[in-house]
Amino acid sequence: MTALLVEAVWLNDIALCSLDELAEFSGLSQDELADLMAIGAIEPDRSAAPARVFPAQTIVLARTARRLRDDFELDIHGVAMALNLLEKIHALETRLAALDAKLPHLP
Amino acid sequence: MKFKDYYSALGVERDASAAEIKQAYRKLAHKYHPDVSKDPAGEEKFKDIAEAYSTLKDSEKRAAYDQLGRHHEGENVEPPHSWQQGFAAGGATFGDVDMADILAAFAASRHGGGAGARTRPTRGEDFEVNAPITLEQIYEGGETDVRLSMPEYDEHGTLHRVPRTYRVKIPKGAEDGQRLRLSGKGGQGLDGGKHGDLYVVMKVIPHPLYRVSGNDLYIDLPLTPWEAVLGAAVQVPTLGGKVELTIPAGTAANRQFRLAKRGLPSAKGEQGNLYAVVRIEVPPAATARERELFEQLAAESKFNPRQHLI
Question: Contact B213/A25, CB-based, under 8 Å?
Fold first, then answer.
């Protein structure tokens, strides 16, 4: 079958999205997003302040938050806690992989 | 459509209470949820668990599901007529429809107050799919095809699983786990609702030669003992082609040679390095003549690497 060439948005920390887009794409409510910001789990782009825009990468975090909220029936504090731990784990895994890269891997 | 046994997916009896179903789900979610599970097959298993729970926790959906009665897993069954009220007239075959899609459509139509009377626009579901990519693709920035099968309504209102292929550009500097968002390429919206989105997750295939550390790459560079002592000219493969490297005399094990800008590009346009890490390899079995030469060397040399241990 033919492949359709499509435009895709790269979710990195260079592209930006608005608070409304964040709510729409993640399925979290504006209140939940406000709570996550107050807790510090989500941070707007400082250089754009006072406008509330976020690195596009935040969409991934917000979607994870929504999944945790729904799949584990957590309140927003539980979600923030879980996000924090997941981020720590991710950082550790990245560091481990970087260290492992320097070890010999000869057959 | 193929029957799925939701009760056995959760490990509960058909007459389980709502509380028992909830507890069974929670236990399994903690075991298999992709965000917490150690099991690599967890994600697939969790999909089945979540699907089973979303049906059995909702009393209307559960009642509709129970109407199907007992069947074998994978058995072909016709959905009861009452389910079909959400769709256009008969003649529709449900052979290729996923049971979950039909139940979801059934539930949506019931909430709208019956056939044809749906009101609120509902946004389509989001989907996420993995796209395996190679280091070569990250280095050069090519395109990749993402294949998946989407539940879609045709012009008669019948639900089908349609295979779709999207070609996406892999930007230079993609990292493992990074996502692309394809707006509107997810599930269809209902009643004029927007389409959901499709998220494509880049999964970097481990390379047989290089290991990744941020934007840098590492490769083992095995040398013979005499190459390390005497020096040598060696060829090192890189993503941009082979490179000649001069090994100076007296090169120690684990020394790193930096091949500048032969690593991976970053999203911001910087270029990482490739590090060739020296490993001294000893021949597993020396010939008689080789042994003779090494013994002469052993007798001649005063080099003592264990000086500090005496």
Answer: no
